[in-house]
Specification:
This protein is an alpha/beta fold. The protein has one domain: Rossmann fold. Helices cover 44% and strands 16% of the residues. Helix 2 links the parallel strand 2 and strand 3. Helix 2 crosses helix 7 and helix 4 crosses helix 5. It starts with a helix and ends in a 6-residue tail after the last helix. It binds zinc ion. The site of zinc ion (ZN) has 5 residues, from loops.
């Protein structure tokens, strides 16, 4: 069993997802689901822009209230500032709308997992989500409980949303079972990468998405200035854009360089199950045949 598992990992093939022409995803619906506003723009902003440009309708589900992420605001002011930035991100990214689940930031390991999962199942059925972009529930060395709690709830909700006996009261309200068929999982640390998305063309859109997280970017840059000041140093040219280019896009350049691309984002991708396609093609007959 151990040998088989490690062999399977070693044999993982990487698919390069390149830009598509036209709008091949028209009619499909995606959800970006993260605890924090900046997670998606930083780790998947290029892919999000690519998929929306190729026809997807998109929603953002933010599971935490981001109350801890500002430089010099109070807790309450921080919630409001990040809520306003979220509205800006939705507009800039071209998403249809966001849903704030508002669990307390950095405390999501306290959240009832079945409650979070149930809220996601409701939204997956309501919005008929086909594709999710979220943290990898199996990413290694993740230190933020908000990230792994959200990721695990998303993964379970994706298939349970298709169950007739899961939350059956939804069906009395007019919803139908609806499972999610495609997943793009990103991670801060090591993960099993099998999909590399060429994001070279959507870097400008990604930068705009990151810029919209104004409160969080200011937090990052001013923290850096504070650390440097402790060492009697300063960076006179450090603007938010310089920081985005230097600190946040380096990962995309490095991912691209591995595959001969200028910029790329890496994922563990799980697609629809095609294992019975051949059997069905050979044996299926029309319903009334
Ligand atoms: Zn985060």
């Amino acid at each position: 069993m151990f040998a088989a598992a490690s062999q399977a990992v070693g044999q993982t093939e990487v698919t390069i997802e390149r830009p598509l022409t036209g709008q091949p995803h028209r009619g499909k619906v995606l959800a970006l689901i993260t605890p924090h506003l900046d997670d998606g723009p930083i780790f998947a902003g290029g892919t999000l822009a690519k998929l929306l440009g190729e026809g997807y309708t998109g929603y953002f589900i933010r599971t935490s209230n981001d109350e801890k992420d500002s430089y010099d605001l109070t807790l309450g002011q921080t919630v409001l500032a990040n809520e306003q930035d979220t509205a800006h991100f939705v507009e800039v990214a071209g998403l249809k709308r966001s849903f704030d689940l508002s669990y307390r930031n950095h405390r999501m390991d306290d959240v009832g997992r079945t409650e979070l999962r149930a809220r996601l199942i409701f939204l997956f059925r309501l919005l008929k989500i086909d594709t999710v972009l979220s943290y990898d529930p199996w990413g290694h060395y993740e230190e933020n409980p908000d990230h792994y709690v959200t990721a695990q709830a998303v993964e379970a909700a994706c298939w349970m949303a298709g169950g007739k006996l899961d939350l059956p009261e939804h069906f009395a309200a007019g919803l139908k079972p609806h499972s999610v068929s495609e997943k793009y999982y990103f991670a801060r640390g090591p993960q099993l990468v099998n999909r590399v998305v060429d994001t070279t063309r959507t870097v400008p859109a990604k930068i705009n998405a990151i810029r919209s997280c104004k409160t969080m970017i200011e937090h990052m840059t001013r923290d850096l200035e504070g650390t440097l000041a402790d060492h009697k140093l300063r960076l006179p040219g450090l603007t938010a854009d310089e920081f985005i280019q230097t600190a946040l896009l380096a990962r995309d350049r490095a991912a691209g360089a591995k595959h001969g691309l200028e910029y790329a984002e890496e994922f563990h991708y799980i697609g629809p199950d095609h294992s019975l396609d051949e059997y069905i093609k050979r044996n299926a007959i029309p319903l009334n045949g």
